[in-house]
């Protein structure tokens, strides 16, 4: 008796190696998978604009990386400055503070974008919000920053609208970066605020748009079934957080395993297998960090890391949470 369904992975693989330059854009699901890439020593830039949810906002981020940040995206509210293209953690008490946070991350992302050859996009919803008036009128926003709903026009994007918006950008990227491979995914997070039927309709629009882009740009655009793995293969509330909407850590770990099976080369697996015990050792918090014994332990681990980097020159391990401080 068969009691388990395994989602079939796409036959055409997008191989991921430590020499690749990776950009992750999209929902919090992209963050989770991106962090696991980062832990594995990949060169990955994760959401340089913060978490983004809809295809229009993600597309705007790609345009900004290609053409520069737009003017008039900053505004002040309740003694805090924000950017319409960025998440709340880029906000600051002064315009200079906000601009500094935005531009520091943007400059780093642009360096990565110039060398980009792997782009992973996670769409969460087809609902986009556009400014109704003011200097930024008509522009999609990445975050409403708790501003009044009357300032925005909400739009449920159709599959055709998504494909029409994204086609020129994909064409441009493939012209400028012929080696680039784009992997589209849909987040398994369920939007209860739309109602569960509305959430399913939103996911359906995203799935249809992703399928058409992959058909239109065969060989360049690919789809990884993260949504189907969670909803059809795991399909149980025990794989969700307490809110019953967000996938649990265990679910994300399982999707990461399936993603690894689909995309890792033999050498990539060897590197990760050798690096993982060292990473865990470095992440361990000792009771007595200032002792000579702990210093000797760290020195021994760092020597092993140095040998690993010498063995695999493309390996880029990081001790930092944001990947900014390679070993």
In short:
The protein has 327 residues and is of the alpha/beta class. The protein contains 9 helices and 10 strands. It has 2 domains: 244 residues, SGNH hydrolase (Rossmann fold); 61 residues, no CATH class.
Secondary-structure blueprint:
Elements: E1 21-26, H1 28-39, E2 43-46, H2 55-67, E3 74-77, E4 80-83, H3 95-114, E5 118-123, E6 127-131, E7 140-141, E8 152-156, H4 159-176, E9 181-186, H5 196-216, E10 221-223, H6 226-234, H7 249-263, H8 266-283, H9 292-311
Parallel strand pairs: 1-2, 1-5, 5-9, 9-10
Antiparallel strand pairs: 3-4, 6-7, 6-8
Task: Describe the model.
By secondary structure, this protein is α/β, with parallel strands linked by helices. The protein folds into 2 domains: 21-264, Rossmann fold (3-Layer(aba) Sandwich); 267-327, no CATH class. It has helices at 28-39, 55-67, 95-114, 159-176, 196-216, 226-234, 249-263, 266-283, 292-311, and strands spanning 21-26, 43-46, 74-77, 80-83, 118-123, 127-131, 140-141, 152-156, 181-186, 221-223. Helix 1 crosses helix 7, helix 4 packs parallel to helix 5 (196-216) and helix 8 (266-283) packs antiparallel against helix 9.
């Amino acid at each position: 008796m068969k009691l388990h369904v395994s989602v079939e992975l796409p036959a055409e693989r997008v191989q991921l190696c430590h020499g690749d330059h990776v950009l992750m854009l999209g929902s919090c699901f992209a963050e989770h998978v991106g962090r696991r890439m980062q832990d594995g020593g990949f060169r990955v830039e994760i959401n340089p604009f913060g978490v983004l949810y809809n295809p229009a906002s993600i597309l705007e981020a790609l345009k900004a990386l290609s053409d520069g940040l737009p003017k008039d995206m900053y505004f002040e509210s309740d003694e805090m400055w924000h950017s319409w293209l960025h998440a709340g953690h880029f906000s600051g008490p002064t315009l200079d503070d906000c601009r500094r946070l935005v531009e520091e991350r943007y400059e780093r992302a642009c360096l990565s974008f110039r060398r980009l050859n792997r782009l992973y996009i996670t769409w969460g919803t087809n609902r986009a919000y556009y400014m109704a008036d003011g200097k930024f009128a008509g522009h999609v926003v990445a975050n409403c920053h708790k501003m009044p709903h009357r300032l925005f026009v909400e739009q449920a994007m159709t599959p055709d609208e998504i494909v029409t918006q994204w086609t020129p950008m994909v064409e441009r990227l493939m012209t400028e970066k012929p080696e680039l491979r784009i992997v589209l995914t849909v987040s398994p997070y369920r939007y209860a605020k739309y109602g569960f039927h509305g959430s399913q309709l939103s996911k359906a629009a995203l799935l249809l748009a992703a399928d058409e882009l992959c058909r239109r740009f065969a060989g360049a655009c690919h789809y990884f079934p993260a949504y189907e793995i969670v909803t059809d293969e795991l399909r149980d509330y025990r794989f969700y957080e307490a809110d019953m909407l967000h996938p649990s850590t265990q679910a994300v770990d399982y999707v990461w395993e399936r993603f690894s099976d689909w995309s890792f080369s033999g050498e990539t697996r060897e590197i990760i297998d050798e690096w993982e015990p060292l990473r865990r050792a470095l992440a361990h918090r000792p009771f007595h960090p200032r002792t000579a014994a702990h210093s000797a332990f760290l020195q021994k681990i760092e020597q092993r890391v140095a040998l690993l980097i010498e063995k695999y020159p493309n390996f880029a391990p990081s001790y930092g949470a944001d990947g900014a401080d390679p070993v």
